Amino acid sequence: MDVISLRSSLDSEAGFFCQLDRKSDSAMSIPKNITQCTSVNRHNRSTACHYLVVLMLSVCILQLASSTAQTQCAARDVLERQLKFKTRASEAPQRLIESERDIAIWKTIAIGTFADSLKLRDALDSMRCSVGSQAGEILARPSFITASQKTDMELALVSPTQLGFTSDSVTLADLYSRARKLGLELAPAEVGPQLRIQYFDQPVGEFLIIGMEPIMTWSGDPIILNVANGGAGLILIGQDGRAEAEIPATSRIVFARSHKLAANTNLVDQAAAVPRE
Questions:
Q1: H/E run at residue 4
Q2: Which residues, 6 or more positions from 10, have their beta carbon under 8 angstroms from its beta carbon?
Q3: Mean pLDDT of all residues belonging to the chain
Q4: Where does the source fall among the domains of life (predicted)?
Q5: pLDDT by residue (tens digit) across 112-147?
Q6: Residues in contact with 160: Cβ distance below 8 Å, sequence separation at least 6, in sequence order
Q7: In the beta sheet, which residues pair with residue 170?
């Protein structure tokens, strides 16, 4: 391969691997160095350019690896996890919840791991988790607060059908009222973005409504959060949080398990562990 064809190949590979900004100093210095290779004698020219190519591609690969390590929410990373673990969207469980004892722990996440909502938003951005305009707006509102210390939060995942509703849809107010009567609690607003960055294996096509008190946008619209994977990457979006908003019966809603329910569960487990004579 002569120098001209080598340079052409190198430029195309650099663009693919690194997507370097041609206006940057580092990007502009590479073609200059390759051109300088033509000034050395014929015997050393090929060897010098070969080492330059290896060095450049090594740097590009390291940059790519560093970037990939943080792109947890990008569509490509999501697809790779789906293929590796063969995860898929599961249908909403339909077993009727009649009492607190029927409420299972779906997932436990940590909250209070960021000093404020700004740092939480920075974490979402660094992982390339998309944030919808409404979600981004309420994350910036003063009423969106984070826990003052790290706490493990037990979450339950239920559908309106499980809560006993037989109609095709139910209002958000009725949904919340029934959930509270069965021992569920509204989740802190922080659960939405925290679940987004702690739920990287979310199946494609899954949209989870966060059962939370709505937060007003600057224009006064009440918004709640939705943790979703629509196929183009992991995203946090906002949706209508009005009391009269209609929620389809097949939707899945994330609630917090009450502290009382958790304490009762622990007592039952301890009683079951006591040996009987």
A1: helix 3-17
A2: 30, 34, 53, 56
A3: 77
A4: Bacteria
A5: 999 999 999 999 999 999 999 999 999 999 999 999
A6: 169, 170, 175, 247, 248, 249, 250, 251, 253
A7: 247
Rounded to the nearest 5°, which phi and psi values hold at 7?
Answer: -65, -40
The DSSP bridge partners found for residue 229 are 206, 234
pTM exceeding 0.85: no
SS3 59: helix
* Pairing mode, strands 151-158 and 234-240: unpaired
Q: Contact, 34 vs 46, CB < 8 A?
A: no
In what helix (H) or strand (E) does residue 215 lie, and over which residues does it extend? strand 215-216
Is the predicted pLDDT of residue 264 greater than 60, yes or no?
Answer: no
Residue keyed to tokens 């003052």: 148
> Which among 107, 82, 104 is positioned nearest to 95, based on CA atoms?
104
pLDDT of 24 strictly over 50: no
In a 3-state reduction of DSSP, which class is residue 111? strand
Is the pLDDT higher at 28 or at 165? 165
- Return d(Cα 15, Cα 193) in angstroms, integer: 34
CA distance 149 to 41: 66
If you average pLDDT over residues 173-177, what whole number do you get? Answer: 98
Query: What is the three-state SS of 153-178?
Result: EEEEEECCCCCCCCCCEEEHHHHHHH
Element of type H or E holding 73: none
- Mean pLDDT confidence for 255-274: 58
Higher pLDDT, 13 or 92: 92
Q: How far apart are CA 18 and CA 117, in angstroms?
A: 32
Most distant CA pair in the chain: distance in Å?
A: 93
* Mean pLDDT of all residues in 61-86: 57
